[in-house]
Amino acid sequence: MARASLRENLIDAAVEQFHARGYSATGVKDITDAAGAPKGSFYNHFVSKEALAVVALDRYGATRRLEALLDRSVPPLTRLREHFEFLRDENIEGEFNRGCLVGDLAVEVADHSDAVRATVHDSFQAWSDALAVAIRDAQQAGEVARTLEASTLARFVLSAWEGALISARADRSARSYEAFFTVVFGVLLR
After folding, report:
1. Which entry of 9, 62, 135, 142 is 20 to 30 Å from 77 by CA?
2. Do residues 32 and 124 share a domain?
């Protein structure tokens, strides 16, 4: 098996460091140290920490299992529930120390970086679009009311999820997740 390239190691380290410490608290040296690379090598692969943040957001997004939301061999509400259960379980296993890297960078960096803001926007749009596919499929199957457009419901569910993550981090408990699942799957998506 081929060894991961230094660039790949830097990206993985950036995802980890940005997610654990935040963008501002993470320096290039923190990233290169975590990647086991000399600091000077960073600039052979990225023009700036901001440029690496854009790539790190894309890498993080690839781990969110959005493709499972599009898998029509699985009932749509099952796809949706399993998606959020995966995210919830990941956060609980991490002892509520991390939220969503996309949401974190949206709050911390997007007002100061057009590149990060554009990537955050695209990330949220891709996520919302995948949620909308599953919601639309549930509406067509008669499992979810057609009172609202699937895209509107998807955007609201995504916003509710991001809020639940923040709340869970603040009180270090799963109570916000319980409320999310109760309202989203017990009321909204019916």
Report:
1. 62
2. no
CATH number for the domain that contains residue 49: 1.10.10.60
Tokens for 100?
Answer: 């969503």
How many domains does the chain contain in total?
A: 2
pTM: 0.94
Q: Confirm if 119 and 56 have CB atoms less than 8 A apart.
A: no
User: Where do we find the tokens 């408990």?
Assistant: 173
User: According to DSSP H, which parts of the chain are helical?
Assistant: 6-21, 28-35, 42-45, 49-61, 76-93, 101-108, 114-140, 150-171, 175-183
Q: Does residue 131 sit within a domain?
A: yes
Q: pLDDT tens-digit profile of 118-164?
A: 999 999 999 999 999 999 999 999 999 999 999 999 999 999 999 99
Q: What is the residue range of 45's domain?
A: 6-58
Nearest to 184 by CA among 160, 152, 163, 168: 160
Say yes or no: 163 and 144 in one domain.
yes
Cβ(105)–Cβ(18) below 8 Å: yes
CB 48 within 8 A of CB 26: no
